[in-house]
Amino acid sequence: MRTSVRSVDTTQLLKGVLDLAVLAVLKDEDGYGYDILRRLREAGLTEVGDASVYGTLRRLFAAGLLTTYVVPSESGPHRKYYSLNASGRDQLTRSGKTWRSFATTMDALLDDRGMAA
C-alpha cells in the first residue's frame, strides 16, 4: 500500500514557528533584517529564507509587536533596526509557553513509539 504522506519538510515547520523564532532572536538584542536572518541561521534554522524573515518582520511590526528605528551608516544604506516592545515581549511569553507545551506533547508521542533521538 502506497501512502501520499511525505516526510515532514523543515520549511513547512518553519512557517509555523518563524514569528516565535524572530521574537526570540530579538529578546536580548535589537537587530536589522540581515542581522536577524544571520542569527536565525547561526541558531540552526539554516533553511529560513530571506523573504520569509523580512515579511515576518513587517507583519510583526504591523501587528504592534515590534518598534523600529533607523541607524545611519557611513559605509552603505541606513539600517532599520527592530526591537521588541512590551506587546512583543508578552507575545513571546505566550507563544513560548504554547511551543513548549506542543514540543512536550510531540516528545511524548515520539518517546511512546520508540522514536525519540
Q: What letter string, H or E per element, gives the SSE order?
A: HEHHEEH
CATH topology: Arc Repressor Mutant, subunit A
Number of helical segments with 4 or more residues:
4
State the end-to-end CA separation: 28 Å
The residue-averaged pLDDT reads 89
Rg estimate, integer Å = 17 Å
Q: Tell me the number of strands.
A: 3
Broad structural category:
mainly alpha
Total number of distinct structural domains: 1
Point out poorly predicted stretches: 1-5
Helix content: 55-70%
Main sheet attributes: strand count, strand direction, barrel closure: 3 strands, antiparallel
Portion in beta strands = 5-15%
Shape: elongated
CATH homologous superfamily name?
Winged helix-like DNA-binding domain superfamily/Winged helix DNA-binding domain
Give the strand order, joined by hyphens, for the main sheet.
Answer: 1-3-2
Mind telling me which CATH architecture this is? Orthogonal Bundle
Q: Which class in CATH terms?
A: Mainly Alpha
